[in-house]
Design a protein that fits this description.
The chain folds into 2 domains: 6-102, 2-Layer Sandwich (Beta-Lactamase); 112-285, Alpha-Beta Plaits, CATH 3.30.70. It contains 9 helices and 10 strands. The protein has helices at residues 6-12, 16-19, 30-48, 97-111, 121-138, 153-159, 161-177, 204-222, 260-276, and strands at residues 56-63, 69-80, 86-95, 142-149, 184-189, 192-197, 226-232, 235-242, 246-253, 282-285. The chain is flat, with a radius of gyration of 26 Å. The N and C termini lie far apart (58 Å).
Length: 289
Amino acid sequence: MTYISPADERVRGFKAGELVGHSVLEMFTPEGVAIVQDAMRRDHEARQSGSTSYFLTFEAPHLCKDGRVIWGEVLSKPDRNAQGNIVGYHGITREITERKRLQDQVHQLAFFDPLTKLPNRRLLNNRLGQALAAGKRSACYGALMFLDLDNFKPLNDAHGHVSGDLLLIEVANRITSCVRETDTVARFGGDEFVVLLGALTADKTQSGAQACLVAEKIRSKLSEVYRLAVAQKSVADKFIEHRCTASIGLTLFIGTEADPNAVLKVADAAMYRAKDAGRNSVWFDGAAD
């Protein structure tokens, strides 16, 4: 860096003397560094292919002297030497932290359940579509579980919706603890949840066995007693113990012409078979391929 404007000094807190002579990448968080490097790489590739742009633009998180992180929209122009090679950049940054916060808020409301913070039905459909496409390329099976709580309504009726909400949050945490980070746990609506297991194996029998193990692990975890702490004004929390199990429908899928809704319908039908079989059980329908 060869110059820092007074406006930048005011926004980020660093004096010019603290930054001039340092790498421009020191202005950014690790995430920001990756964004900048990717933007420069894409700009270089575009220039190599003959597609030139006068300005390089990107959005990235910046570091402040007091430890805060702010987002900036960067408009940068390359500085070239006599041979036409890029030797640096002149950049202007506009702070967009509030805009990014609002964008994140809109995204959260659009794709995540506000109570459990799990993906909602819309995001689930998107990820299931991606899993079907990935399975078509890899020839590996995936699995889908449809879960419905067996004894949820009596809790709401006896103790109110606050206790019901606490139980749904705990259910979400328990299911999430049973799967991989790459899998998806979604709240489908009410007391219904869906679990998407991607990239199992190319062998249907082995994939089915793996999925059944996970489903049984979830069933067992959800059947453990719930101890819910309901906050009350001016008095100590009220603790409620409740037993709640789940009926789980499970199916396999692979990348064929099946759409996400078709796979969901198979898992949903299997869930009702689990209900009919006495609840607190897993019903495996491995026919979807």
